[in-house]
Amino acid sequence: MAAPPSLYLFAILVLFASAAALSLAHPQTHRHQFIIQATPVKRLCKTHNAITVNGQFPGPTLEINNGDTLIVNVINKAKYNVTIHWHGIRQLRTGWADGPEFVTQCPIRPGGSYTYRFTVQGQEGTLWWHAHSSWLRATVYGALIIHPKEGDSYPFPKPNREATLLMGEWWDANPIDVLRQATRTGAAPNVSDAYTFNGQPGDLYKCSSKDTIIVPIDSGETNLLRVVNSALNQALFFTVANHKLTVVGADASYTKPFTTSVLMLGPGQTTDVLISGNQVPARYYIAARAYQSAQNAPFGNTTTTAILNYKSAPCPAKKGSPTIKPIMPFLPAFNDTATVTAFSRKFRSPRPVPVPTKIDENLFFTVGLGLNNCPRNFKPSQCQGPNGTRFTASMNNVSFVLPSNISILQAFQQGIPGVVTSDFPANPPVKFDYTGNVSRSLFQPVPGTKGYRLKYGSTVQVVLQDTSIVTPENHPIHLHGYDFYIIAEGFGNFDPKKDTKKFNLVDPPLRNTVAVPVNGWAVIRFVADNPGAWIMHCHLDVHITWGLAMVFLVDNGVGHLQSIEAPPPDLPIC
Ligand SMILES: *[C@@H]1O[C@H](CO)[C@@H](O)[C@H](O)[C@H]1NC(C)=O
Ligand SMILES: *[C@@H]1O[C@H](CO)[C@@H](O)[C@H](O)[C@H]1NC(C)=O
Ligand SMILES: *[C@@H]1O[C@H](CO)[C@@H](O)[C@H](O)[C@H]1NC(C)=O
Ligand SMILES: *[C@@H]1O[C@H](CO)[C@@H](O)[C@H](O)[C@H]1NC(C)=O
Ligand SMILES: *[C@@H]1O[C@H](CO)[C@@H](O)[C@H](O)[C@H]1NC(C)=O
Ligand SMILES: *[C@@H]1O[C@H](CO)[C@@H](O)[C@H](O)[C@H]1NC(C)=O
Ligand SMILES: *[C@@H]1O[C@H](CO)[C@@H](O)[C@H](O)[C@H]1NC(C)=O
Ligand SMILES: *[C@@H]1O[C@H](CO)[C@@H](O)[C@H](O)[C@H]1NC(C)=O
Ligand SMILES: [Cu+2]
Q1: Which residues line ligand 2 (CB under 6 A)?
Q2: Topology of domain 162-344, CATH
Q3: Boundaries of CATH 2.60.40.420 in the chain?
Q4: How close is the Cα of 101 to the center of ligand 8, in Å?
Q5: Residue from 102, 402, 419 whose mutation best tests the ligand 5 pocket (most atoms within 8 A of CB)
Q6: 22-36, 246-260, 362-376: which range is least confident on average?
Q7: Fewest Cβ atoms nearer than 10 Å: which of 219, 274, 419, 452?
Q8: From ligand 8's centre to the CA of 404, what distance in Å?
Q9: CATH number of the domain at 361-562, please?
Q10: What is the spatial distance between Cα 97 and Cα 83, in angstroms, rounded to a whole number?
Q11: Which pLDDT score, from 0 to 100, does residue 18 have?
Q12: Which pTM value belongs to this model?
């Protein structure tokens, strides 16, 4: 007896659907083309020729699953050298695709191209990509979302909706000119004119209201917000009027969920939060503004907004009727370090994690600013820093200088001498009261291109100690090629005798960027299981410009699985 045709159809559909599900369970390869180009972008009533990817600002969002491979062909049609960094991606054995200029590659010159190829392994959540050359990342950035493997789920109930909010900074100028001016004068660069959500300043700035970002929600929904600090030079507070936020992830690692009404993200950091539609249907401002820890330093004291819009909210602005303004949240004061501390202390991994306990490399790095005395052959106009100096910055008194004729990774791999030395100090060359009243004679660091060599598989602890040279400041320290556990944070000078007791060796958070407390310290641990040359730097770009960086030179292990791959044939050369 023949089955009715509809049953056949049904059976075929079921077969087809399960085959599709099976094939999706395999890792996918995603191919993209990024064309770097100047594009007119109008903000704050004025149009600038911004450098963009594919004419989009912010650039395209890349969405993949854990385990997938990305192949991104970058074509440089702009007038500047450019590179792209895949912020937070571990780049296991693919260090040639990491991106920082003159560290893992020479820049892609105008007219040139380079294809970045890498596989994401064991990371889930929100990351982002950005230019890693000069200050191009002011406009060249976008989100990189890593979903669980097909068939896997989030370690929390599936959100009804997801939205990504990239926080940025907008200059009513060419950011490269702002950098050039600062480099010429030795003074601090101009601060930005607006903060942005997804490239839009929002309602509180001139000529911006009509493009304010709307984030939809409905009563009874629980949604996932992926928040990224892509600002060039500013740590930011983030909050939503009348709504609590449940933090579930940061830097593409899950966290033990905790509830807060405000987030603080240093540049480079990401935070995934759940938000529930449990308030009166209306429109609520999502807002961000500066957390400014440096003393007597100018900063952009403005607020960017997006709108959390309940679908069932009464119509916002009927013609002829008065506009009902969205509800504005309370934001912490610009210098509210107590709120930052309370927030950062809540971070834990979801369960006990394998923190390295036997430490091979016990390192202590100071991080901070400095002042160079005006060189003899410089004019006063070139020394407009405090008291006729030029700003600088350093780690362990070494102010990092990039090579200009080869990348550090190439020099390290090929044993080319005279580019990078492996004598970066394990400890500060001079011990002093780091967070006290530092003698002026200690303010001027030594320029150099120094790396710290690590054996494959060694276990590393780094104490990152802020200094009060010029001013103490919360520095977002970002390590390429690795995630690390943040096992403790504190204020004042790190004291191994009493602070070791505070180490969380059970469930510390795993991150790629740590916001080192102002006038304080943070301790991180990782295993050096990824060979290559990995820059560790402050993610306030002005501080990298001044030299707040160093590189880890990680040896190959045994066999090809513990060794970096061969450089791709199209790797740009200088
Ligand atoms: C920086 O700010 C000063 C003062 O407002 C202004 O004169 C200068 O043109 C700005 N520089 C750039 C590159 O926009
Ligand atoms: C920042 O702006 C607010 C008003 O929006 C003002 O009350 C406050 O004094 C300003 N703070 C600084 C440090 O400029
Ligand atoms: C924050 O700055 C204000 C001045 O704008 C000052 O009165 C207050 O004491 C500062 N708070 C802290 C914690 O430093
Ligand atoms: C600059 O000079 C003034 C007056 O001599 C002094 O009070 C101040 O501490 C100096 N600042 C720096 C950063 O050296
Ligand atoms: C790169 O430049 C440095 C100094 O400017 C020089 O010592 C070195 O030999 C050069 N290396 C190459 C590979 O050209
Ligand atoms: C800091 O030390 C200098 C000498 O190095 C001294 O002149 C100055 O008074 C001290 N300042 C404070 C606030 O202790
Ligand atoms: C850094 O090194 C320079 C040159 O040796 C020295 O003058 C300065 O005091 C040092 N500063 C620190 C903080 O070690
Ligand atoms: C661009 O990169 C090349 C090396 O590939 C370098 O020689 C040149 O100085 C760079 N240009 C700028 C403006 O940085
Ligand atoms: Cu980065």
Answers
A1: 301, 334
A2: Immunoglobulin-like (2.60.40)
A3: 23-147, 162-344, 361-562
A4: 10
A5: 419
A6: 22-36
A7: 219
A8: 7
A9: 2.60.40.420
A10: 10
A11: 41
A12: 0.94
